[in-house]
């Protein structure tokens, strides 16, 4: 399997449990592909929703996909600090020349002071029933949420001081 090299642009696609496309980020710049994580950056990227809506992100973002992790993080650089939007989802795959994962509804929004709010718990419960999430998936989703919250509390991984800024500098070097 051939992986993209740093500086190459790729598409990111999230699916729902039933295999339907959930969201597509048209292009992100690969910053690192490795045995432990992929890191990509983007700015004002076109995002396509399953319902046909399209929109552009408003600020630069650094996205981290850890190997085997049931979540991914998007660190957004805003004027008043780094905000994170974290998706609880299946571990990423490089498939069909795109980075992809299954979105399992739960999200965590993290503020610059590392306070956070868990989002879409009702959506998770609804889709859990409608899409018939198997119990082993539900366990993985909950474990992923706990692992993510632990990293936030410890300010480790993508939540370390200056992590997003350092990767943003690398992103700018490709522009």
Rg calculated over all Cα atoms: 15 Å
Compressed to H and E, one letter per element, the order equals: EEEEEEEEEEEHHH
- How confident is the prediction overall: mean pLDDT? 96
Strand content: 35-45%
**At the first level of CATH, what is the class?**
Mainly Beta
Total number of beta strands: 11
What percent of residues adopt helix (DSSP H or I)? 10-25%
CATH superfamily grouping? FomD-like
Determine the N-to-C terminus distance: 27 Å
The description of the largest β-sheet is: 7 strands, mixed, barrel
Q: Which regions contain 5 or more consecutive residues with pLDDT less than 50?
A: none
Morphology: globular
Keywords: Hydrolase, Magnesium, Metal-binding
GO molecular function, one term: hydrolase activity
Pfam family, one: DUF402
Domain DUF402: 18-156
Would you kindly provide a written description of the structure presented here, covering whatever features stand out?
The chain is α+β, with helices and mostly antiparallel strands and 175 residues long. It has one domain (9-173): FomD-like (FomD barrel-like fold), CATH 2.40.380. 23% of the residues lie in helices and 43% in strands. The protein is built from 3 helices and 11 strands. The chain has helices spanning 121-130, 135-154, 163-173, and strands spanning 9-15, 21-33, 37-42, 46-49, 54-56, 61-66, 71-78, 81-89, 93-95, 98-110, 116-119. The protein has a 7-stranded mixed beta barrel. A hairpin with a 4-residue loop joins strand 4 and strand 5. The protein starts with 8 loop residues before the first strand and ends with a helix. The model has no long low-confidence stretch (mean pLDDT 96).
